[in-house]
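Hi R.,

Here's the chain you asked about this morning:
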Amino acid sequence: MMHTAKRFWMLAAAGISLATALSLPLACDTSTVHAPASSADAGINSTRSDTLRTLQAPARPLDAPGGVAVMEAGAGLDARERQRRVVAQILAGNLPDELRTLHPVNIESDNGQAVTIFVTGDYLAVGSSEDFVRSPLSLPSALAVSRAFGMLLPTPGMVDAIYAQADLRLTPQPMPPLPEMTSNAYFVRHQELVEAHRNGRGQGALITGHKKDVVSTLRLREQPGRVAIYGWHRAVGDPIQPLSLVHGEHYADYSHGLRLVHPTGLLDGAPVELLSLFGELRWLSHP
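And the predicted structure, written out as tokens:
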């Protein structure tokens, strides 16, 4: 696997184009993960399969700023520069420890096979475990992060499965749809609302319900230059936000969240590439 740190110079600019983000190969080499061939090598391959449960991100720097400080520092900047700074912090490892552990979720593939996927327990955030802010990202910024960490964006079906199997389902916390809804101040205010509602619950657990997901869908091939969002569930099968591509790819407001999915899942206990099982992921593939 190519070490993530070696790719930072290519991805630190959050304002990169969608075409550039898509052109970068996945950092995760799934060919290094194998199902045990015999009891003799089961232990070795079990260790390899542990990579399915870990986000391959660098350690958080000791001098990294907290989430609120990152948001305040970028408050007066234009949207793309604010995004660039947040992405640079995340790629340098400035994210909560809880995001480094991936959680299993069971889902049916397009052909009805039972697959286990592995996802981050919460939406992407900048800062420490004690001082973090969930960070809405534009599609180019989301792809820069996901590809640097060797991950994928979820499909709408994955979002539904995550909600149904979550350890903690939070109630959506809508805010007034004002022009400021894309500002860092709005991001911080929504963070405060979500954490007040959460009230310390679900530390290190799989939690959902508090953001709309930036998702993968084949409709992005039909409508290039857009971002696809879906979710913010009120109950199982009841999302506030149906699949929408109404916004341009550089748009991100307080309600958006980025959950990452490992590109390898388990099918009958054996590793399998999710791109081979879920058509909605294939808009990311290239000849």
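The chain has one domain: 4-284.

Let me know if you need anything else.
M.
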